[in-house]
Structure formats: C-alpha cells, structure tokens
Amino acid sequence: MIVAGVGCRKGVQAAEIEAAIMAAFAQAGVAVSRLGLIATSAAKGEEPGIAAAASAIGVPLVTIPPPDLAAAGLRATTRSERVIALAGVPSVAEAAALAAGGPTARLIAPRIAAGPATCALVETEVPP
Question: What are the distances in angstroms from CA 26 to CA 29, 41, 64, 113, 121?
Fold first, then answer.
C-alpha cells in the first residue's frame, strides 16, 4: 500500500492537493490505484482542501499528532529550514507519510512541491 503525505500552505484548494499527489505518483512511476490513505500533520488536519482531496480520491485522511510527526521526521530525507521553523520537522509531507506508514515504511518519492502543496510517498507492506 502507498501512503501519500501532504503538506500545504493555508487555504490550499483540493485541486492543488490532488495535483501534488498526482505529480508524486508520476515521479515515482507508481499507479495511483495503490494509494491507500493520505496523511498530514494534525495542524493541517483542519484544511478543507486536504479533506476534500482525500474524499475526491476516495481514501481516508489520517492526521498525525505532533510527537509522532517529530519522531518520523528523523527519517525524512528532505530538509527545509522554513518548514523546520514553522512545523518543527524537516518536511511535513515526508514525516506524515512515514508516521502513517509505520516503522517499516520506505520512502519511494521524496517531497515534491506543486504550487502551494507538497507530497511525499511511502510504501508499506502492512496497512497502518
């Protein structure tokens, strides 16, 4: 199963989230049909665009609490000083995907930015 981790600026639209997810899948060369869930930080959980994108794609949205996001952030490969200052992790998208995917999750698409949204993909053998 693939988990898409998503980060975004405030007020992002669902279409922009979907575009970032599709770009990440294209980069990874993986079929979107393998997407099992979308994950984001608890701080971004109230963004209507993220929830609308998950609903449109037909997968659950999981929000990751700060301690779990921080722990998974240690495994992130992308590092943004701006995101560290704002969110406390080097990449919200990567940390959210890794946390939702569990300890054996493997990053298959590092964070990509598509306009105001970011997406990273992890593969996990066991549904989280």
Answer: 5, 23, 25, 13, 11
